[in-house]
């Protein structure tokens, strides 16, 4: 399936969901050529890594052994997918304000900091779920967000958000706090 075909399928899914639940769900997806991340790391090294990824994301990807670049590419795809949900006008939040956390089980969550968290609150995001994959030359991510009406746009403290799994929901409960979350 080409990128355009996939985007068309996703748009159809979003229209179908919107017909059932209004503006309650947003879906973002992105695909990344792993070779592009490999080339960026080779060309820019630490400058690229430290601009785009948090220390935790880099360390987690290093634990993937022979899949280091694929792991980074999947995390980059997740960041892009979330930006599609945030729908930023003008400047976008810095890359490191969107963090992919990997649990020991292998499942991932999103942790939003600073401007990304403030925008998420401003858009009324109440829950996030993320899925990452990589196969062959491509890495991809899908982010689903539950939107519970418009928030007042203010966030407490720095406005960090973390998506955490809930036993009662397929989506992660988003916790807004004044500081970083220990996950």
What features would you describe in this structure?
- The chain is of the alpha+beta class and 183 residues long.
- The chain has one domain (3-177): 4'-phosphopantetheinyl transferase domain (Ribosomal Protein L22, Chain A).
- 40% of the residues lie in helices and 31% in strands.
- The chain has six helices and seven strands; from the N terminus they run H-E-H-H-H-H-E-E-H-E-E-E-E.
- Strands 1-5-4-7-6-3-2 form a seven-stranded antiparallel beta sheet.
- Strand 2 and strand 3 form a beta hairpin.
- Helix 2 crosses helix 5 (68-86) and helix 4 (55-62) packs antiparallel against helix 5 (68-86).
- The longest helix has 19 residues, at 3-21.
- It is globular and about 40 Å long.
- The termini are far apart.
